[in-house]
Write a structure and sequence with these properties.
Elements (H helix, E strand, L loop, with lengths): L9 H9 L13 H8 L3 H16 L16 H10 L2 E2 L4 H6 L4 E2 L3 E6 L5 H11 L12 E6 L6 H22 L12 H6 L1 E5 L3 H17 L3 E7 L3 H5 L4 H22 L2 E6 L1 E6 L2 E6 L2 H5 L4 E8 L2 E8 L6 E8 L2 E4 L7 E3 L1
Length: 346
């Protein structure tokens, strides 16, 4: 039985799912004090939630026909579960709109584009935004940032964090004018402390880290996004055997998909571009070939339209093809200042 079907309030179910407790089995061995810490709720509330979960366990009695392989769900259950899945805002309303509300948890989103288009800026923004407090509509989580190119800038991260704290505080005060307890008191340095940074220098290190992430996240269950910037760098330089490279990339993608589903977190992979010859003309396309393009749930391409940055939904099982403009400002990713129509549905 899924947590989303328990007779709890929508807020309580949302907190459980956001913290990675998606099934009754995941609640079977946790103590009220540990659950209270993970959900940031009083221990008495956590105790009552566990009590409801135990009653839910009793509703499902196994019989002699129970299958060895578990995990079957109805399409209706999946639809309701997807409605409850949290999303991470990009801080650009137009970009969030074509993404269905932001970057979705439990999915692997690939974002590619030319150098200087804003990939790393977007990655840093997401590492900050995953920490938006639950009271402000966020996940209140932490980020894992895997840097393969050395492009992560801690000074820039601090700058984006400072701008974000101002925005969160303003939003919180607007919602909770009479409640001191709900006001945001996060400092920019607190945000930096919740970004786990890994610097990767070889493809071997990259594969080893992806294999280690399951253990790391099991010990840091408040991690809600894994960012790889970029997945491409070492796999374009270190390999001459493309069949071996594709097998390694496929295995890595599978592990990342499983991590997203197991821990209810978002995986964002940045990719580089390459030149591809199509019908006698050369065009820019994302690197790593056609086989890699099937390894991710969603694919977003960032490109220049004149002097304006744009994002295009190239592939997704649930999102329509659409494009939106965005800007990179001193405070991070924001809406484009352009006056013409920003969103275009294909």
């Amino acid at each position: 039985m899924e947590v989303g079907r328990l007779p709890l309030s929508a807020s309580q179910r949302g907190k459980l799912i956001s913290a990675g407790y998606t099934t009754l089995a995941s609640l079977s061995s946790i103590s009220p004090s540990d659950l209270a810490r993970d959900l940031k709720v009083p221990e008495s509330e956590a105790f009552e939630m566990l009590k409801v979960a135990k009653l839910g366990c009793g509703l499902e009695q196994p019989d002699k026909h129970t299958a060895i392989v578990n995990g079957a769900q109805t399409a209706w259950d999946i639809l309701n579960e997807e409605k409850l899945l949290p999303r991470i805002t990009t801080s650009c309303a137009d970009l969030d709109k074509i993404l269905g509300g932001g970057i979705n948890c439990k999915e692997v989103t690939e974002i590619g584009g030319v150098p200087g288009i804003g990939k790393t800026q977007l990655g840093i923004q997401l590492a900050v935004n995953v920490q938006i407090p639950v009271d402000c509509g966020g996940l209140g989580g932490k980020a894992v940032y895997i840097d393969t190119e050395g492009s992560f800038m801690v000074e820039r991260t601090l700058q984006i964090a400072e701008a974000s704290v101002v925005n969160w505080s303003s939003y919180s005060e607007l919602l909770w004018k009479e409640s001191q307890a709900c006001r945001v008191e996060i400092q920019p340095t607190d945000i930096l402390e919740k970004i786990y940074y890994f610097r990767i220098c070889t493809s071997t290190e990259q594969i080893a880290l992806i294999n280690y992430l399951d253990q790391f996240i099991s010990e840091h269950k408040d991690v809600k996004i894994v960012i790889i910037d970029s997945v491409t760098f070492h796999f374009r330089q270190d390999f001459e055997d493309f069949a071996l490279r594709n097998r390694l990339l496929g295995g890595m993608a599978l592990k990342l998909m499983n991590l997203g589903k197991k821990y209810n977190l978002a995986v964002v992979i940045f990719n580089q571009v390459t030149t591809k010859c199509t019908e006698g003309s050369f065009q820019l396309s994302l690197a790593l070939g056609d086989s890699w393009s099937h390894c991710c749930t969603n694919r977003v391409i960032l490109y220049w339209n004149g002097d304006e940055r744009n994002a295009y939904i190239d592939k997704s099982p649930s999102l329509r093809s659409a494009s939106a403009s965005f800007s990179v400002t001193s405070g991070g990713i924001r809406n484009s200042a352009s006056k013409h129509k920003r969103i275009r549905v294909m």
